[in-house]
Amino acid sequence: MTKKPYYMTTAIAYTSGKPHIGNTYEIVLADSIARFKRMQGYDVWFQTGTDEHGQKIQEKAEAAGITPKAYVDNVSGEVKRIWDLMNSSYNKFMRTTDEDHEKVVQKIFKKLYDQGDIYKSAYEGLYCTPCESFWTESQLVDGKCPDCGREVKPAKEEAYFFRMSKYADRLIEHINTHPEFIQPVSRKNEMMNNFLLPGLQDLCVSRTSFSWGIPVDFDPKHVVYVWLDALTNYITKLGYDPDGSSEMFAKYWPADLHLIGKDIVRFHTIYWPIFLMALDLPLPKQVFGHPWLLQGGDKMSKSKGNVIYADDMADLFGVDATRYFVLHEMPFENDGVITWDLVIERFNSDLANILGNLVNRTVSMSNKYFDGVVRSTGVTADVDADLKALVTGTKKKVEEKMEKLRVADAITEVFALFRRCNKYIDETTPWVLAKDEAQHDRLSEVLYNLAESLTIGASLLHSFLPETAEKIVTQLSTTLREYDQLEIFGLYQNGTKVTDTPEILFARLNAKDVMPKIEAIQAAQKAEYEAEQAKLNGEAAPAKEAEAVIDIEPKAEITYDQFAAMQFQVGEIIACEAVKKSKKLLCSQVKIGSQVKQIVSGIKAHYTPEEMVGKKVMVLVNLKPATLAGVVSEGMLLCAEDAEGNLALMTPEKSMPAGAEIC
């Protein structure tokens, strides 16, 4: 039987920096929906990726002293690393710098221009660089950007504009006749009342004040403005082309779900559908604007120094525990709250106590009383019927919640199954039954019911905590159950032998042990933020014609003998690679005379491994070896650092052989 296609996307992450746990929530939420749809039998295409053009990117790259492409390569790689770390099962990770995407965007722009939907004019208004948005005076809030609250600056430039008003009435009619199009309903009301009904202004769709973007091929001093570039990813990477689209596009479009943050609902429910109308394409079936995950009730921001990152959480608690928290704690419509204390509390109460303890007790009792062999004997009691009814009824409850994208509520239903199993243990008291030989068969039936209930529960849990679900059925020596079998009780194979040594899925945590690690993370983050701010402050200073004078705090004087004890030589870098466990370190193989030394240096932000190979450098050769990020370093490369924190390797002025002494 042919599977019904289901196409879903996340917003593509803007490559201005590392995604925090609030950004990561979206990919985990999307992944749980994609996994559940696959379990239901859908042919799912799940797309995510990174948005990599714009003025903000160009400015950040210039500040870092690297090209915009090098900058977005680094950040996009970091985004993908975290998405993969969180075990997200996307089918496609796209980048707006992909050549095929850029070519189709140019074709789309030309098509819209040729048919009169795009025209050339000039724009004068107030511009917010971080949001890549123009605003009128009346749209500002307290004189600042209404989206992010930052300063705006007057801007005037020649630009191409899209005739938004041409399609406004048609979009209003679509929204009114398709109540499922914008979810939750509060987002729909906001779009209608604040933007559509008051009247749409034409939209700026090109820029000339920066160059990091897709060139308008028939007017190359213009680059395509970020929203037309970014939004079209949903069709370009599916195979749309104005000259003829692919079979894949015909199969999956229109999208079943665009999953996005509530802050970009306007772009996805007004700009995007109007672009599609102009291209004569069907609109996506649903756009869901999820709420934010706030740190202690406040929006996460590096400027506040309160950012929590997914990889830090995963290091401390594990990937599935991180997935559980962000999915379970996020309400359907209102913002969720995350604090380290709350994470520890949920880990202990839900994952360790309710789930982990249940699995451990079930497997341990099966081993203790029956050498691990689980059998149904048919010796039932009234309490069994209540357990079976709840277990077999959970599938329908989860399905109903997932159809409405109420993922947190769906997880709650699965954990209600596990809670009922724990209650069943208290009701049946297996340890009491074990003392009476006449109750031997009844005890066997109780443990069979628990194994079967856990198998069904794990199968329903898999969409949300995939690794944990697999571990549960592995301990029960079975496999995840097919979706259409989750309302049938009694399919666990009679005589199955569970694992001999049950694994503790989630060991209880002591906050006193965890908090020092959290404080170290916070301290490191604060130091990084302060360094960034210091660097930005240096960049904000007026440029001077003369070279800047750098004053360095003098260190204690050393003797000539102390200096003479240090051995400096010229080295040639013959190989270099990034240190896998570090964001800052490069590991170089440095030829010094007839020997080769391995040297680790914190210069990844300033040099790529490819740039390093072949360089002649100055090396402190007799430095005592040290281990950095698990890699042994046998020396030090000498660098100069300016007031802005930029590093430059010290190199010989003239050609010198590797091994030449520096004196």
Characterization of this structure:
The protein is an alpha/beta fold. 43% of the residues lie in helices and 18% in strands. It has 21 helices and 27 strands. Strands 1, 2, 3, 4, 8, 12 and 13 form a 7-stranded parallel sheet that branches. Strands 18, 19, 20, 21, 24 and 27 form a 6-stranded antiparallel sheet that branches. The longest helix has 31 residues, at 340-370. The model is unreliable at 539-553 (pLDDT under 50).
Strand content: 15-25%
For the record, give the distance between the C-alpha atoms at the N and C termini, rounded to a whole number: 78 Å
Shape call: globular
Instruction: Determine the fraction of residues in helical runs and give it as a percent range.
Output: 40-55%
Secondary-structure-derived class: alpha/beta
Contiguous helical run count: 21
The chain-level mean pLDDT equals 90
Largest sheet: 7 strands, parallel
Radius of gyration: 30 Å
Compute the number of strand runs.
27
Low-confidence segments: 539-553
Summarize this, please?
With 663 residues, the protein is of the alpha/beta class. 43% of the residues lie in helices and 18% in strands. It is built from 21 helices and 27 strands.
